[in-house]
Design a protein that fits this description.
By secondary structure, the chain is mainly alpha-helical. It has two domains: 50 residues, Arc Repressor Mutant, subunit A (Orthogonal Bundle), CATH 1.10.10; 151 residues, Tetracycline Repressor, domain 2, CATH 1.10.357. It is built from eleven helices and no strands. The chain is globular and about 60 Å long.
Length: 206
Amino acid sequence: MKKIKDSTTEEKILEAAEKLFYERGFAMTHTTDIAREVGCNQALVHYYFRTKEKLFESFFQNKVTLFITAFISTGNEETTFDLKMTRKIEAHFDILRKNPRLPFLLFNEISTNPQRVANFRASLGDMPNLLLSAFDKEIEKEAQEGRIRRVKAIDLILSIISMNVIMFIADPIIKALTGASDKEYEKMLDRRKQENVETILRSLRP
């Protein structure tokens, strides 16, 4: 009789893998470590995900999808372009805040295994191009009505990502230079999120 997979167990394995991937990176994490973290045997990890590579791909796709969702679904209920952009920038920043180690891990894996990104991109099909095209049309409409300057959607997205991610990439340096406590650093993050929103919106003014 075929065994039925349990979504709760699968989720626990993913959570344990995420924790260890952040702490050790992909190369130094083994399925035995993940099984030990979950409290199960190694065979169960392989039953759900077959290999460590497949497990990381699932983790990678889940996290990248979070970032895509921040730009697709967040803020669309707002009535003005500025409010939409504010919600999207804040949503992206908040995802990073909840996953502060994610940029390091993704950059490392992308640089050492670019095929991983290529495979994920292939799995998305035409969706990225369609989304960028729709965003470009929205920007063009706002520009034609004189509310913002013309800018390519991809350039705007890259500006948002680069401004938001720097606080998490440079986290150890900023803390060392400022001597900020955890509480002070949290306040700094709040300020940066607001500054990033205002900077991006100012940059769009005609």
